[in-house]
């Protein structure tokens, strides 16, 4: 078994794609792997980001051999970090949003079910470049899309929609019926009598692209 180690010290084992942890989930015992989505929405191919922004394109440089996928070894530190950050998604969060179908959730691959198909971009991969105010802006582009045929929820990377993996349709209930896409974002809020807190870099878009901090 080939093992890859990143500059940050993370270790990824190249596991047979049919023996990855996802298939330890009881609902995926007889699951057939879907290597790529059957179609892509038009927005996956858009090229609206400016040339001044640089994408994270390297991933695990050499990647894993054909037929295998990189799975990160879970360390004790990973479990401790996940437990610590968990408080920001519960009653201590501001606001504390309601959840559907229980309070379940976890980071990266700590929950079973995500089927990885690409040999170079694993979940839990550390991005080694950051945007700097009035400097080069770096970005990483992902989409979560529902496959129109299988109903699986695919995670694709980049403007050309390179498939990283997917969450099988069988893992979901109502989400598998009516929803067609997932989006995420953020916002800040304050009372009318208080100063609004900054979000992101604290600069407005009209101040210049290099101050946005993507």
TrEMBL record:
The lineage of its organism: Eukaryota, Viridiplantae, Streptophyta, Embryophyta, Tracheophyta. Residues 1-214 form the Neprosin PEP catalytic domain. This is Neprosin PEP catalytic domain-containing protein. It comes from Carya illinoinensis. It comes from the Eukaryota.
